[in-house]
Specification:
Arc Repressor Mutant, subunit A; 22% strand; elongated; disordered C terminus; Rossmann fold; 5-stranded parallel sheet; 238 residues; 2 domains
Length: 238
């Protein structure tokens, strides 16, 4: 079961989907517009967002792009219920970041099976929600970092950079990759990674020595004596 957000301008369809999803055990929230849905998603962090066909003049692809630009929704699954079955519309939605596409009119049973399959597949490959790195404990979903139980306050960019290095532990990640992924639209310069990393080292002295700058290559969260490296030879790049 999962947390599902339904966004559609058709009130009757929203209620019908909420009833069907609720009967399957899902926790359901409803929004009549994409802008409202984005506000709800920031606080509830849904596992799956269903985008209906009635989206106040927005195409399915435009709606998907709007949701994907908001980092809160980066990990959410997106299922589009489109009014058009044209290949160009389906392709545009998938290229924008949709995970599945259903054309109206649709079978409620089929939609529920697609929701179930998407959530099952996501959980099978989902990264751990709680991660230990030395004396640090990182809670991925709540974006909480503690050191031996004491909370450490990180900015959004600091947390994103930390998680990217943690997920790529033992691998060197290039500066260009980090800028493209974490500052896609607003990086003042490529040096923004260096300044953010310096702040992380200052706030997290317990792992400061492991937050390494590989000159001319990129950055790495290295293993300590008690952790096995991803590769004992030359560091890999990601």
């Amino acid at each position: 079961m999962g947390r599902v957000l339904v966004i559609d301008g058709d009130a009757q369809l929203r209620v019908a989907l909420a009833t069907a999803l609720g009967a399957e055990g899902h926790e359901v929230e409803l929004a009549a517009a994409v802008t409202t849905g984005m506000l709800i998603a920031k606080s509830s962090v849904p596992d799956l967002i269903i985008l209906g066909a009635m989206l106040s003049g927005m195409t399915a692809a435009e709606a998907v792009l709007s949701l994907r630009r908001e980092r809160t929704n980066a990990a959410a699954l997106l299922l589009v219920v489109g009014s058009s079955g044209a290949e160009s519309d389906r392709v545009a939605a998938f290229e924008a970041g949709a995970d599945d596409y259903v054309v109206t009119p649709f079978s409620t049973r089929e939609l529920l099976l697609r929701v179930r399959a998407l959530l099952r597949r996501a959980r099978a490959k989902a990264p751990a929600e709680s991660i230990r790195v030395g004396s640090l404990t990182i809670e991925r979903l709540s974006r909480r970092v503690t050191v031996e139980g004491a909370r450490v306050s990180l900015t959004r960019r600091e947390f994103d950079l930390l998680m990217r290095l943690v997920d790529g532990r033992g691998r060197v990640i290039t500066r260009g990759t980090l800028v493209a992924e974490l500052w896609p639209d607003d990086a003042p310069s490529s040096r923004v990674v260096d300044t953010t990393l310096k702040r992380l080292r200052r706030k997290l002295p317990a792992i400061a020595a492991r937050l390494r700058t590989i000159r001319g290559v990129g950055y790495e969260l290295g293993a300590d004596d008690g952790e096995e490296r991803a590769d004992s030879s030359a560091p890999k790049q990601a």
